[in-house]
Amino acid sequence: MTDRSPKPEYDDRPIGVFDSGFGGASTLRNLLLELPDERFIYFGDNLNAPYGDKSEEEILLLAENAADMLVHRGVKALVVACNTATSAAIKALRERLDVPVVSVEPAIKPACEAEGDGKVLMLATVATTGLARYRALQARMPDPDRVINVGCSGIVDRIEKGVVGETDFDDILSEKLAPYEGMKIDGIVLGCTHYPFIAPAIKRYAAAHFTGERRLYDGNAGTARQLKRVIDSRRLNARPGCAGEDRVTFLTSGDHEECETIFRRLLEIPIHD
Ligand code: DGL
Q: Is 44 near ligand 1, meaning CB less than 6 Å away?
């Protein structure tokens, strides 16, 4: 028999968020601001990070495991706070799960639509830049050739150790970005959720090596707005004022104590506006 009882006014279940590791904490910061009454369960797959150097099949499997675990814990919606997992697995996750799934994606659209004739540097994992979903997104841009894709292996490994200093990434940035030395760059897309944590390092490198506007873009604010739309439209909102102080439960496949210390620190440090 169909259940005809009215849908309850509020849904106090938490929202699940996952990433290969700490990167999704940059997304979570926006989610906490955009949805002040909600509680979150964050899963960092720190044991398996980085995803960005793995095959599409491996990333898909890891993303499915992470999502299943969170759904099993009773989340009412899921946020894929990992551009790499979005590229490899978003379609499969939406087909597989009964809860709504929102994801982060490289913010090349606002970067490409901004005024100027300078190039747009899209920094992301090697997997993201090569996968069909991202390639299709790039092809939809008004001038796809404006975008230069740079797969940046090595950055995530270092951030996973808790390293985020302004001068700590010059070696990797020089190695990856030397071919574009002196170029006019109007936009730099942080196409991996780990990268907002090292925005000062990227800005500093860009100021010394490129001309142009060098504006930074990431997809986190857009993801938070989309999650809010989904929660509102499906009437999944938590009861106002009930979230309490401790709104984030942290889970990891790595060492819990060590990882939670880094995670909580990253949730607090200043990042780019
Ligand atoms: N933070 C992730 C992303 O947005 C993945 C990084 C990685 O594990 O390589 O792509």
A: no
